[in-house]
Amino acid sequence: MKAEVREIKAEGWVCGKCQEPLRQLPVEITYMGSSFQVELPRCPVCGFTFIPPDLAYGKMREVEKLLEDK
Amino acid sequence: MQQQTLKQFEAQCIQDEPPACQTMCPLHVEARSIAALAGQGKWNDARKLLERSMPLVSVSAYLCEGPCRDHCRRAELDEGVNLPMLERLCVMNGRAVKTMPLPPSGKKVAIAGGGLSSLAVAWELGRKGHLATIFHSGPIGGGLNWLDEKRLPREALTAALGQLSSVRVTVETHSFSKDWLNEILENFNAVYLGLDDETFTPADLGLSESQVFPDYLTMGTSLERVFAGPADSGGQGRLFINQLAGAKRAAGSIDRILQGVSAASARDMEDIYPTRLYTSLEEIEVCHEQLLADKWQPTDAEGRAEGARCIQCQCLECVKRCIFLKHYKGYPKKYGREIYNNLSVVHGQRRANTMINSCAQCGLCREICPLDADMGDFTAKARREMTATNRMPPSAHEFALEDMVYSNHPSVAFTRHAPGAGKSEWLFFPGCQLPATLPEATMSVYQHLRANLGEVGFLMSCCGAPAKWSGRPRLTGSVAGAIKTKWQEMGRPKMILACSSCALFFKEELAAIPYSTLWDVLAELPAPPSSLAAPTALALHDPCAARHDEKTRNSVRQLLKNIGQLIEELPLGGQLTRCCGYGGLASAANPEVGELYAMDRAKDTGLVMASYCAMCRDKLREVEKPSLHLLDLLFPGGSIEDAASRPAPGISDRQEARLNFRRAILSEIWNETEPSSMENLKINIDEALLPVLESRRILRSDIQDVLKEARDNGPQFFNPDSDVYLTSLRPRQVTFWVQYTMADDGSYNIHDAYCHRMVAPATPGQGADSPASLEGYAAKGGRI
To answer: Where in chain B is the domain with CATH 3.50.50.60?
Structure first.
């Protein structure tokens, strides 16, 4: 069964710890020894990264598959 | 993988073998493809194909006698495809192919005689760039000039001469003598004597018949550089097609010696040979050959109809019956090459990974294949190599293996002698899935066994089959070893196995342990008093793991007979049964293809299906097929209709059911009460979200873990406009996210949950980036 992926927009969210609104900031994400510099919504204070479902099942899933088959 | 392994596998798959019409044609004309093109009226393309194997088509196509017709599979039903008629149409309706000869080689060949074989030899040599000269004293074409005009139109000979001059063949009139031969041998590199031209004999050249009698394969004579033909000279019955084949062999030999290569080596495939290709006539209907209005002047429509009669021989026996083989649009030989290449990739994508992991390894292809080609065995080898070289995609099997680790965790698995007994004569092993889907019936069958057999102990764990399917021999060995240890501790009782996959695994990995299947044991006992029979016949589905377990299959049928249950055998049942998709972890690695297996199986019958494997029953039910487990009949928990429509439990349900089963059976039979080990938060999940979580393989326990993280360390994100929280946790090689709101009673309303494998920095949890070995994971007891 292909589940429908609900989008979550980063606007309106704040960091639970710092109460700061999120901002598009560079971050390094890694998998299977490879790392990528991307811009994602993060807390500008503690740096916590916000990953919405459409990213998890979209671009991220694609890259995971590519790296797993490499 | 050794190349030898691939070669052996490839040799077993005969799909690429040419059909009989081609192998038994002296010229190896690609009759099957020509017929296909003729069926579409594509005469230009058909002629082009014919020219590839038939020399001097403009005349030869009228002469072929069609020996292929006797070897055509259609001849077994009605009449072999009339290829000579199609060949005639190729020349009549197809455009002549413009032949470009190879650049001149500077070698000269003299050809004595103007008969068919001489023309064909000249053509073949001219194409290869040699300078061929035909010497003749009678008419060009020799005996062909005496053929009926309808059989061979005279303009065909004219066209043939045109074809010859296009490859630089020259024609000279000359009389033959001993001196001529000597002069020729001095000035030419090789000679061909075309003795089908009856205007000269060997004696005219000062030679005896035996001196020029050609060798069958090379057409060489006892004289150096002298070749002769035709192939089956003499006699009324000689065939033009054999003469042409002989001429082709002679030209081949001459070309070889002109290049300084042996004329005889490696030529055995040039002769006719029986094909290895198997073609079933099962679904082929009788379709007689049309009577032609004029045998020598067939029409386009007649040719199309005749071409369409060709059944396009191919094997594909396994592909017709296996949805996995069909899905990837190939056949074992092709897949073997893809898998081999996939394993050999140094840089770049391994595109066959998912295909390799989608095979159910159920063994059906091997049963069907005339040469026992076994995709399951081949993909198993590939998977072992992938795990050994750390090339197995972590997402393929990790989830299934975690489930196995869960089943074997000390808080789920257990071993007991029967209450009050200090030893066990028998040890009941229901496997991991039966207690997860039919916990009450599992308990009932255990009670039934105890009532009839006495000292029956209980061992609950997973056998280790998932580890084996995933291509991990070390993990397989450690799980099997743990079972062996428990069996020894229990005093080496005879085991009773409820699952066919367990039984196959015991046979292959735990040969020292004596066992009977549950069904063999039950068939010998009185039927349980609770037994019910369905009012109508059930279609009996054998699990693929029971393919070679005839005894168990018979016991099941006996049991059903004992309780008065009517059954219908499936066309692909028993030894030829099909897999539900769970086998080989196909549905774990590739849920889409996994579902296709079950849907394909469900289509085999309109009846309610009955099986004696918990996973088969549930997989069929997942695709909406009403289906029962044998225990639903022997130890019913309600009506048969309800049992047939009972939904298959989800993965979370299964894990919770195992834990609950343990608690219930220990309490009921052994009077042991276990403290509830889990501290659970109260969560509310909308019905509609459950199948989404199932397909994303997110367990309720995963959600619990994330919420505990949020409770203990605070939620990571908050949306003040909607009061929604979002928190993540990476307990293993997966990061889980849960989006939730707080209910007034302090419980959690789950809005969504999702997961990914990539790592963002600072995610709480233990899971590293690259996958830790599952062996290590198992040793730590896994997550629970």
So the answer is: 108-232
